[in-house]
Amino acid sequence: MKNENIKTPLTAGRIICLAALVLLALVAKVMPYAIYRMGWQLDPTDIGSYIWNFSPLMPLAIVAGASLPRNLAIALPLGTWFAGDLLIGVVSGHMEWAFYPHQPLIYGLVIGLVALGLLGAKYVRSETFSERTLVNVSSGLIGATLFFLVSNSLIWALGDEMNYSKTLGGLMECFMMAVPFYRASLVSMVVFVPIFMAILAPSRELEAQREAELNRQLADS
To answer: What is the pLDDT of residue 47?
Structure first.
């Protein structure tokens, strides 16, 4: 059943909070490379020190798709992701780490996350803030899983800094090596989606006000 999604006007307070989270997303994306540049080592098997992919970036794409006008919903996470990639190249001193041959496909996956958020908000009935948050978290977990499967299939098929054998065993090895990234992505969805919802999702009072205004307009026409 369709759920009419009401886009939230961005007040000054919401814009400030959103800008702070976008900045946090950029810092989270670049931090591992800054740590590398300082000569520190991060063990990808040690969850206590593994910070890669724990970021508001993918949750931003989900909630933007559910809560913002379409053009802004695409431009905000995509622009943030691109800016993060650019900073990775600057901070690490290796532009090839930031931009690689199949990078446009990754940006396509980001747009796919936005689409998931939009579809969840449009077609899954949700009446309360908690229900809408649950829908977006669910969309986020699905999106993180699809991102994990598709991006690592691309790495396996097209090659990257790590070349896996083009066998089923090589594909499984690629997936296993990416599990820490995937795990951090899932945690990010659970942590950051509710935060973005609180900033971007409309309140029930606002919805009621907009609905009453729309009814008045219809009655006057």
So the answer is: 42
